[in-house]
Structures are given as structure tokens and as C-alpha cells.
Amino acid sequence: MAIRMRGVHALARLAGGASLAILATASAYAQDAAAAPEDDAIIVTGIRASLEQAADIKREASQVMDVITAEDVGKLPDANVAEALQRVTGVQITRVFGEGQSVSVRGLQQVRVEVDGRTLLGWSARLSPPENDQLGRSSGLDSVPSSLFGRLEVRKSPLASNAEGGLGGTVNLVTPKPLSFKEPTISLRAQGVYSENSDKFEPAITGFATTKFADGRIGVMLAGEYQKRTSTTQTFERNNFLNRNYTAGGTTTVQQTPVLLQYEQFTVDRSRLGLNGAIQFEVTPEFTITADALYSKLKTGRRQDFFAFRLPTGTNPVTGAVVDDGMVVAGNTNGTVTTAGQIRNEPTESFLYGLNGKYQGDNGLTIEADGYYSKGTIDQTIQIITLQGTAAVPGAFDFRDQTVPSLTLGGTFDPTDYASYNPATNGVRSNRLLGLLEEWTGKLDVSYETGGGVTIAAGVRYTDLHARSNAFRSQVTPTRDEIEPYLKLVDAGDFLTDMPGTFPRSFLSTAPTFDYVFNRAQGAEPNPDPNGRSTLLPNLQRDYDFSEKTLAGYLMVSGEGEIAGIPYKANAGVRIASTRLSVDSYVNVGAVSTLVTDKNRYTNVLPSANIAFNISDDFLIRVSGSQTMQRASIADLAPSTFFNATNLSVTGGNVNLEPPIATQADISFEYYTGKSSLISGALFYKDVKNFIANFVTTGVDLNLDDQGRELTFSRPENLASAKIKGFEIGIQQFLDFLPSPLDGFGVIANYTYSDAEDNAGFPLVAVSKNSYNLVGLYEKGPFSARLAYNYRDEAVFEFSQGRPSFVGSRSQLDAQVGLDLTKNIALSLQAQNLMPKKSATSEYSNFNTTALNSYALSERRFSVGVRAKF
């Protein structure tokens, strides 16, 4: 009896740079998924089918690549794209508000994000960024719902035909296309999501529909998803350990001392809407036109309360100091108390419109033209009302043997009494950031397969990228009468209830409103914008208008043959990219701002080669070598010079930054032990030049300071080189050899070791040396289950005063259960973040876990859903 899955083996090669060839492969799977089975066939669906499809694509790929495929239409294994990708060997993710947001690949966080080979632009929320920290070159992976995609690809080695821009790799999100389905298909899913601490049950609704007309030559597809989630994040925030002077007996020593103890609680309200549609027209059997569009809107709103105790900065800031491994971790001091309530909203939108035409003739000639427009917008507003203590407050702190440091206040200060706060130092502050990213791209690819099986491919790609940032801010001091209606008492029973320890849990905070902060407290300020864009004052040191034009071309040759009787498939090519950029920004000296224009241009030559040896039908060895690049972030390229005449400092970006270049080599092994089973391993090496980091220098600039004083300059520079080397191993295996029902069990396990250091011997930012995944599976008949555990160890997140600060090790446990009630209707249960304290994000200074800088705890969430497909 033949065993058959709902899908076919991938036949497309990733040669010639034809991005729609990848889509055609995905289409072939979806088409066969709707086909009627043979009379003696057993249909393999669900988890096993998706693993078999992924293995087929990996086996046939022309580069080093890992793949996750949907179990069915609109049904990836995780609701969040980043969280699905964390199961891939060599991928590590960053979480914000308990959700996966961005990824690093084999030790580098500079990763390009594409949809169907096109740039997806947009923003993602951060926990506590500066106003324009989010401006980048591609969207965060939390900005679009995962149900819009049928496949996620992680390309670890490039082809010459792939767009440049991913130093660590490229994540390509593949959407289904309507002509791939043999029959009309409708899929609907409704879920309720419960967040534990927020105590809310909220909806997630997904829909998909596709059909064909005109004898199957015209296809239409529409997909959409809406999600809403309210979550609670409990944090200790914004501390750092900095050098402070201690003088006793005529001797001065320097100790690393905490700066700020701030206890915060966020309530985050996120709603996500995603729409995806496509129309395809098969003009002739050889020529197809596709028009498609993707829209995503992510609204992130948060309300937070915090209690802050700031240590003094002068000599002898702490008495009775306890020093642990060079860090002051306990003692007594007189600090400044600040409490505040804040509202922060950051609605973002992403748009992607594309038109594609592809001709694939019987004579070996393929021509593909593709054009698209990508856009991302943000309108971020921040409203905060702060209260500050009337005088320095005695306090005893202790960082030892606790989740977060303890803080005991002394003296007569009562944090719940408004009389303890000084109206003259209270403040109302508001910020607004209006951001735009947009890109126009057109490309043409031509390939010809000769009679000898050799394919010659060439193409050209032109990109016009534009980014604009307009920032506004204002701060006023309200009267006592103005602020009193907006006071609120934070109750001890509602604040950081999952964090043990002694610290102020009940205090007076504020409840700002948009109407009060923007219209009343600051309504008297002059409107700086004649078009009424904002009533706030311009924050010109964060403003810029950026333009970048890129012309890239490639030539690639691919083919297959034998060496010593061993079959192989290979490709080799070169990509040349010429980049021109221009930035309008401001030089800010005191109250005077001068608009200036800076320009730069550079050209990069990027060779690549991949070869795969079929040692046997089931055993492959891949070898690849290439150079990849990553253009500097837009915010780093914008000079936006700000001169502070008080402390004689100069900060800003640097338009002359060169793109970091990675020279990399890979050798990987793939042993396919069954249709859905695979054992794999890889060795990888990257040598990166021109890493970008902030650099501090001193000098004189008479254009900024006509007195000729020595200034301190802080700007990003191409400072470092780095080497990343490591290995990865993985296994994907169903236990088919066991008797029923035990043959439904399966396992996915992988481990990655990445050793990454710069030329000074420091570890690279965001790189965990060890990471692994363990996934237990069961699928038999109508029942399926999955238990997934993910782990990564500590990683550097920044350097302060030459010392590294680390993110601690983290792990997460998730579970899923599914039951097919009928052929068309299924139930599902999911539980995420089952061990919140293990997944909490902790940051600490200089290898000392006691020296805590921040701690963020997210909650468990559960969902139940029903799905129907016709």
C-alpha cells in the first residue's frame, strides 16, 4: 500500500534569481493538497505532512536553507512568526511584551525580512526605546499575523540572485497563490485567548478563501486575521552600574555603583489586523501575471506606573557599601524619588503592493519582471505626568539573593501622600514621532537552460528607499490644582504581585489623558507646524529626511553533473550593488538649528557559490562560500548633530558609514531517514569587517564652538571586525518503527553552538553561545499534540564604560493539542509561556548576575479555538 502525503516533492531550483520560482514550489504543494487521493493511498496530514513538505524543500534547495511549512492553509505551528522561527536550528529570537519580535541567525542580528522576496517595511514596539530607535530597514516579525503565510524560509547562505542586505541571513515569508489550488477552498478559525494576569479572554479570528474562474485561468485569493491581546509585564528597569568616586582618609577609589532603582508595571493592549490578497491570470500556459497586496496594522498601547529611586552622582554616594565582584550591591544613600503614570501609543501600518509577470517557455528561456511598493508608517505619542519628592529621601538597597533589589525608605517620606511631592518639580511631558518608510523596487530576471543542463541567469534590480522622521516634544510644570484631578493611588495588591521582595508597592502615581497632556497643559504653546501636524515643539535633533537609491545586478551559472561518480548540483555567481544616499538633518547648537545635506556612495561586489553532493539518494553534503553585506541602519546614517554647550558634547549619526561585510563558509550534512525524518548538521564560519559601534573621541570644531574648546564626540563608526564560528545539529524523527499507537510519537531536537568575538576579544551583541530546541510530537488519527521547549544562554546586549552588560539565559515551554471532530472541523488548545520565571528577561552588568540592570516578567497565555475548512 502506498503512503502518500498532501503535497508533492519540490521540483523548483533556486537558480536564476527568480523569486516566483519559490512561490511556484509553494503553489505546487497547495495544489496537490487539494487533489483527490489514489484509491490505495493513505492521506498524511497535519504535523507530519508539514514536516515532510519542509524536508522536501530543504532537500531540493540550491542553498543552505531551513523551512517551516503550515500544517494546512493559514495554520503555522505558532501564532507569531518569530516564535515559529525559534524552532529553526541556528535561530535565536528576541521577545518584547511576551511575544517574539526579531531573530538573529547564526550569531548575527542583522537579518533581512522579506515577503515573497520583497522588502517588508515597518516598525515594532520596544519596551523602553528613545523616540526614534525603531527606524530600520525591515519590519519586525511581530507586525504581521502568521496565518497569512504558508511557509517560512531561513536562508543561511545566499544566491547571487538574492537581494543583498542580510548579514546573518534572510527570512522570507511565503504567501499562497490562488492558481495553486485545484478546488475552491474556504478556511475559518475563531480563537479565544486568555492572558493570566490581565484576566481577559480576547478574540483571534482568521479567514482564507480562494477560487478560480475562466476554466481555471484566473484565480482570486483573500486572507485576513484579527487578533487582540491585553497583557501585563512586570519589570525592574533602567538601572546601570557606573563608576563613582569614594574618598576616605585622603584616598579616592572608584566603585561601580547602581544608578537607578525603578519598579514598573505595564498593561499592554495590542491589536493586529492583517489582510493579504492576490489575483493571478494565466495568459498562456507559459505566461502568468500576478497582482498581490499585503496590509498589516499593529496598534500597541500601554499604560504604566513606576516608582523610581535615583542615587546621587557625587563623591561617596553610598555609605556602608557592600561590594561584590567590583559592584556595589548594597548600602545606604539619599536618593531622589520620582513616580509617574504614562500612556504610550504607537500604531504602525505596513503596506506591500506588487505586480509580477513570468514567462517560462519550453525552450529553456525564463523571463520574470517584478515590481513592488512597500511602505511603513508610525505615529507614536507619549504622555507622562511625573511627581518628584520634595527632598532627598534616605534609602537602603540590597541586590543580593532576590529576584529584584529590595528598597526600604527611611525618614518621613510617605509615597502615598501628595504633600511629600514638590509641585515645583512635577512635570508634564509629551512626545510625538511621525515616521515614514517607503520603497519602490523593480527587477528583471532572465535565465536560459542550455541543452547540456547548464542554466545561465542574469538580472538587474533598482530600489528607491525613502525615510522620514519628524519628532516633537514639550515639557511644562503644572500647578497643584491642575494636576490633582489626575492623581491615583497604586495599591499594593495590584503592583508587581509576582515579584517577591521588599520595595514600595503602594504609592501615588498619575493617570494622564491625551486631552489633558496635549490640549490643556501644553495647549498654550505656539504651534510650530503651519499645517497643524503637532501642537508640540519640534525636536529637531531627531529629525531627518533620508533617500537611498541602489542599482544591483548579478550573473549566475548553475548546473549538475558527477564528480567521481557522485552526482552534484551547483551554482556560482557574483552580485554587484551600487548605493547612493543623501540625508537632510539638522546641526543643533543651543537654540539654533541649521539644515544640512550629507551624501555618500559606495559599491560592493558579492560573490557566492553553493554545491550539493548526493552521496546517496538520502545523504547530501552541501558546501557554500559567499560574501554578504548589511547597510547601516537609517538612524545611524542620519548625522542629526546636537551640540550641548553645557557639557561640551557632540552626538549624532554618521553618513560615511560603510556597510559591514561578512565572508562566510558553510559545510552541512543532511541524512533523510524517512519522508518526514531528517538528521542534519553543519559547520559555519563568518569573518565580518566594518562592524558598526559608537565611538567616543575628543577634538575641536570651530563650526560648532567658535571658542575652540575641546569637545567630546560620540558617533557610530566602522570600528571592529569579528569572527563567528560554530556548529549546529538537528534531528527530526517520527517513531514509525514502533507498533500502533506508539508509532504516532515523534521528536524534533536541535542544538547550535556559536562562538562570536570582535577583534578586541569582546563577545558580540545578541549572540548566545548555546541554544537548543526540544519538541515532542504525537499525531495519530484525529488527535495531535506538541510540547516545545526552547533555550538560549546569556548574551551581551550593550557596552557601558567599556564593560559588557548581559541578557541572562532564558527558556520557554509551550504546548498544543488538536482534535479533528470531523473531516472539516477541528478543535485546538494552546498554552504558551508555561514557565514565566524561566522566560523572564534579566539584564546585568559585567558577568555579575547580582548586578541587575533590568528584569521583565511576562505572563502565561492560553487559547482555545475551532477551525472549519471547506
UniProtKB/TrEMBL annotation:
Residues annotated as signal peptide: 1-30
Domain TonB-dependent receptor plug stretches: 58-169
GO cellular component, one term: cell outer membrane
Chief site of localization: membrane
Pfam families: Plug, TonB_dep_Rec_b-barrel
Localization annotation: Cell outer membrane
Membrane topology per record: Multi-pass membrane protein
Top-rank taxon: Bacteria
Keywords on record: Cell outer membrane, Membrane, Signal, TonB box, Transmembrane, Transmembrane beta strand, Transport
Residues annotated as domain TonB-dependent receptor-like beta-barrel: 405-834
Family, as annotated: Belongs to the TonB-dependent receptor family.
Name of the protein in its database record: TonB-dependent receptor
